[in-house]
């Protein structure tokens, strides 16, 4: 019930049309990785996915925002199936990834924002290494670059109310795997794949 | 004849017209072979289908009364403003003025029309919005392209909210001896404006040769304008019996609607070009966005509203 209200509200305010450019909606196990600009991003991808996929797809959400307050927490965990991650986790590289590994090990899909935090530019900033480690550990999972157009305008950082500006969600072709690719080269390639989906008719 | 009898005849007539169009569209789709022709016929059929939906929505809202009609137009404005803003470059400092435009000025404008506060709804956006929006934008202290940014938001609001809201405002007009006939005036306005668009498209496709403004709007031709305009003026004159106008006056009113509609289509086409797009959106299949359908109405509505108000109330 709440999910339908949230999807309805998202569609009403920002549209959130899905464009499957290089991939089609499929039940294969996937990691969708996207640029991150706004709190709307998780909702946008979630509304853009067909219902069938929503149940088995888990967005990663920062616990310092989505874990706060009973309502937000309930929406994140119960409605969006989100996995909450503590961005401040200390420890060896990739320690914060434990909950994500769990989801992937169960055969479910993930939505990831590898920039780690919300950016202000149209093109994504440098990616954190999590995507690389997961891609190494779960080589059978498809990596789908995803570009979110406009959420930074509809709901910019530091504001309290989204305004109605149409946003689109573009899903690109799965990122190819390359034998023995270095971490930085892989992350740069992944970032470029997301950026390449940005169509920019208006400066 | 009672109001509901008239509405029944009118919507019956439009359904018959659309029925004929659907049959022709179906026949064409079975005959066409070339790829280019197929695209044109598919677009035509998508347009006809969308017309059925739009007419059904209007018929239902007319049937349910003034409140529903006002809400319907408020939603139309909402989607048109969303389209306008989506294509307009904005910066972070424009967020507050946009919040005010969507969540304060838009509902307020339609509420004023609902309670029939003429003196305020005609100045709310051009005067108070005009002062409020740049003030809010300036508070953020971002001078980059300031004038350009506030003008875009203000003009978007004028076109999509202020102008379009004058269509349902016709329902507030009190014409002596004709209670509750605002619906018929609204019907007259929409029918003439949209019929003019359709007939300009049709006669442009059939006879179009001389382009009016090739750079701004390549599909607008003199032949299309004259053919479409004359058909719409004739249709308007033929609808005199639902209005307070004589047949000649109805033709003159229709001419005003056609002229303003044409200019609206042209001006908004120029806005689209300046933003580098062909359509305002994708919401109405075959037609493009809401604003692609409402561009002529947005220019025609305020003029028709005022002409009627000054001469007939």
From TrEMBL, chain B:
Bilayer topology: Multi-pass membrane protein
Predominant subcellular localization, coarse grouping: membrane
GO MF terms held by the record: phosphatidate cytidylyltransferase activity
Gene Ontology CC: one annotated term: plasma membrane
Protein localization: Membrane
Coiled-coil positions: none
Family matches, as InterPro entries: PC_trans
EC number of this enzyme: 2.7.7.41
Biological-process GO terms, alphabetical: CDP-diacylglycerol biosynthetic process; peptidoglycan-based cell wall biogenesis
Membrane-spanning ranges: 7-28, 48-81, 93-112, 118-141, 153-171, 183-202, 222-242, 248-268
Catalytic reactions of this protein: a 1,2-diacyl-sn-glycero-3-phosphate + CTP + H(+) = a CDP-1,2-diacyl-sn-glycerol + diphosphate
Enzyme class, first EC level, given as a word: transferase
Family: Belongs to the CDS family.
PANTHER family in alphabetical order: PHOSPHATIDATE CYTIDYLYLTRANSFERASE
Name of the protein in question: Phosphatidate cytidylyltransferase
